[in-house]
Structures are given as structure tokens and as C-alpha cells.
Design goal:
Blueprint (H helix, E strand, L loop, with lengths): L3 H4 L1 H12 L11 E9 L4 E4 L2 E5 L2 E6 L4 E7 L2 E11 L1 H24 L19 H28 L3 E4 L3 E4 L2
Parallel strand pairs: 1-8
Antiparallel strand pairs: 1-4, 2-3, 2-5, 5-6, 6-7
Helix pairs in contact: 2-3, 2-4, 3-4
Length: about 180
Amino acid sequence: MQPRHARYAWSIVVAVVAIVLSGCATLFTRPSQQVPIDSEPPGAQVFVDGSFVGTTPITLQLEKRSEYEIVLRIGDRQQSVTLHSSIDNAIVGFDVAPGLIVAGVSGLVLAGTPDRGPAESGGPMPIIRLDPYIRRGAVIGIAVGLGSAAMNVAVDAGTGRWYRLTPSEVLVVFD
């Protein structure tokens, strides 16, 4: 018989794998984005939502979950560009997928680990039974996987890391 601490190894391994594979974009993205602004000819005044921020060429650091009206002005000519905030589906997938994979694999273990005993020949399918420690590990894996996905979604949606600004750069040509 295995020592009691060895029986809990499955639970510990699943929890560690779920946490390590956690796809939280907080580790890899920022809530702001650099947006280069340029003009032809250079030297246009740049206004963001009505406030002067400098002249072209300039790179602005803007929060990703807001929208901005960028106005470029040279003399009496001006042009405007709206930066739109949208959800970056790749980041959403990166947040959710690892936790769901861990939960799904743990669910498959929970649902499909057969009894170690021999099946009766000619009788009905053997009853599927799980060792209590494997069952606990799988349940922990499901909980940690779903919890990890939910935590990643909450943190990254709340901090703005799920978003991106488009267009990602601005070039205005004055005729």
C-alpha cells in the first residue's frame, strides 16, 4: 500500500500544472498601447480628445479600453482619426484555454478511469470506480482549471489587457 502522501500526488500535480499553465495575459500584455502618430509633412500639431500632446512624429501611450479622437493640424488644415477599442480574441483565448484544458482533462479522468478489477466475462460492462485519491485529484483539477480561467478573465478584462486599439498607428497625409 502506498503512503498516504503519495496518494495525494495526483491532486498536487494537477493543481501545480493548472497554475503553471495559467494563461493570464497580465504576465504578457499591458493595459496601455503605444500608438505612433505621423504626418506628411511632419510637424503637425497632435490633439487627443481636444488636448494638445505634441507634434508629429510622436508615439502616444494610450489606455487600450478607451476610444480616442486624434486630430492632426497644420495651419488651417486638419484631419481626424478615431482610435477604436476592441477585444483582442487571441488574448481572450490565451486567458481561457489553459484553465479549460486542465478542467477538461481532469473531467475525462473523473469520468473514465476504469476499475482496476477484472471484468466478469459475458456479464454487463464493469462499473467504473475511481480510487478516492484520483477522484479527489480530478475534482481539484476541474475546480482549479475553471477557477484559473475565471480569475484570468476577471483580472484581464478588468485591467484592460483584453483590448487593443485600432488602427494601431496613424499616418495623415496633408494635400
